[in-house]
Amino acid sequence: MPSESSVRDAATPGWQYAVSAGILGWVLDAFDFFVVIFLIDTLAANFHVQKSAIVWTISIALAMRPVGALLFGSLADRFGRRAPLIGCVLYFSAATLLSAFAPNFAVFVVLRALYGIGMGGYWGIGASLAVESAPLRRRGLVSGLMQSGYPLGYLLAALAMENILPHLGWRVMFCVGFALAIVISLLALRAPESSAWQLHHKSSIGGMFRVLWENRVGFAYLLLVMTVMSCLSHGTQDLYPDFLKSAHGFARSQVSHLAIFYNLCAIAASPLFGNLSESLGRRRTIIAALCVAILALRPWAFGATPLTLAFGACLMQFGVQGAFGVIPAHLNELAPNAVRSLFPGFVYQLGVLVASPAVSIEYALQKRMGYSWALTLFETVVILSLIMIVSLGREEKGRDFQKVDQSA
Predict the structure, then answer these.
(1) In 3-state terms, what secondary structure has residue 38?
(2) Distance of CA 374 to CAs 240, 312, 355, 364, 377, Å?
(3) Burial, 249: exposed, middle or buried (Cβ in 10 Å; 0-12, 13-18, 19+)?
(4) Using one digit for the tens of pLDDT, what is the confidence trace for 263-302?
(5) Minimal CA–CA distance to 151: which of 39, 306, 260?
(6) Is the pLDDT of residue 90 over 90?
(7) Are 96 and 108 within 8 A, CB to CB?
(8) How far is it, in rounded angstroms, from Cα 134 to Cα 146?
(9) Half-sphere exposure in the Cβ direction for 348 (13 Å, CA)
(10) Please, are residues 326 and 143 in contact by the beta-carbon 8 Å criterion?
(11) Among 22-31, 317-326, 340-349, 393-402, which stretch is predicted with the lowest mean pLDDT?
(12) % of the chain beyond a pLDDT of 90
């Protein structure tokens, strides 16, 4: 007779489709976001606005993400993961596509806000579908692979800057991702519906929100975690291309090449640390990755040569994305069964909302103290705070999603 652990670890037929759809959707989500990061100067010139206005649209997109998490997460917990995932990826891809044809800056702002809703909706669905579908022994690895989709999207945006923008123009940068949205939709159609969702889902939206309220203490703690985590990721990524150009005189091609380099490190880090968390534990693995980020601060912000800056950027993103590689598994294991799309997705994206001024704060600080000191002081406070917060929390590594819990 098979053991209980082997039954729990048995793979659901077709789980690879679920994991692939979750990962690729997050890749596309990040690509569509970082296109704007790389095109700050170009968009400012096209719409005849200051660069700070384009930076503001970044904050708008981030701020709208909780709306999407609430909307699409509720649908995924009520009606299943697959259909809301397909609807979400087609929605944010369409908003991105339309951004290419915005006739003026006001329309562009509205479209980026609409994109932010879709961006926020996707992570909770994609992560829950991937983590719930994967075999238990591979949960940490799948968590890391899911999160590595974000730097992979960043990397693809950098490659597109080198290979698409010079030949086809900036508008095409907003169009190329839609084909991948179709592929993701087809993968999701082939994926099995989550058995954990079938076992635990509530019959009404009201019942789901009651579960959310009953778990408000745990939600508040994880909101704090994700707020500071968002300050870490967006604080180290979003303005770094502009930092390299403004503070070090890098050409656009040099920025793109360096972004490719440090995102390769980030892509490797997420599954590495995600898999490590299966033996080391979720919290200790996050803290270990944050210690790597601390070591990266000086060369990342104060490197005197391109080689030193490249080393610092790679080490920084290795630490940042290493910590994030644990997050999909960690949040899903701490979420109530009945709201495993809504709870992690909403707490993740609400944390992004609270942290959304971080980019603008850093940009304002650099005008007072210079880019290097602004980035260093901001991220030092963030990393040390996060180590303390994570160390005081709890974890449920290896939780069986098939078992009924008190809150479900």
Answers:
(1) helix
(2) 12, 16, 16, 9, 6
(3) exposed
(4) 899 899 999 999 999 999 999 999 999 999 999 999 999 9
(5) 260
(6) yes
(7) no
(8) 11
(9) 32
(10) yes
(11) 393-402
(12) 35
- What's the first-to-final CA gap in the chain, in angstroms? 29
Q: Which of 300, 341, 343, 338 is nearest to 318 (CA)?
A: 300
d(CA 312, CA 28): 26
Ramachandran quadrant class, 194 (left: phi over 0; alpha: psi -120 to 50; beta: rest): beta
**Residue 404: exposed, middle, or buried by beta-carbon count in 10 A (0-12, 13-18, 19+)?**
exposed
Amino acid at 112: R
Note whether 127 and 23 are within 8 A (CB). no
Only one residue has tokens 């917060």, namely 389
> Does domain 15-195+204-391 match CATH 3.20.20.140?
no
For residue 22, what are its two tokens?
Answer: 């979750």
Helices (DSSP H) in 281-396: which residue ranges? Answer: 282-302, 306-324, 327-334, 342-355, 357-369, 371-391
* pLDDT class of 201 with cuts at 50, 70, 90: low
Tokens of 141: 């690895």
Amino acid at 324: F
The HSE-up count of residue 40 (CA atoms within 13 Å, CB side) is 23
- Kindly list the domain boundaries of the chain, sorted by start residue: 15-195+204-391
DSSP secondary-structure letter at 44?
H
Q: How far apart are CA 238 and CA 2, in angstroms?
A: 49
Q: How many angstroms separate the CA atoms of 405 and 403, rounded? A: 6
The whole-angstrom separation of Cα 163 and Cα 16 is 31
pTM: 0.83
CA 157 to chain CA mean position, Å:
15
Phi-psi region of 169 (alpha: psi -120 to 50; beta: other; left: phi over 0): left
Question: Exposure pattern of 34-62 as b/e (b: 16+ CB <10 Å)?
Answer: bbbbbbbebbbeebebeeebbbbbbbebb
d(C-alpha 96, C-alpha 77), whole Å:
26
Residue with tokens 């997420």: 270
d(CA 77, CA 200) in angstroms, rounded, equals: 9
Distance from C-alpha of 373 to C-alpha of 109, rounded to nearest angstrom: 30
Residue bearing tokens 């080393």 = 311
CA distance 230 to 33: 15
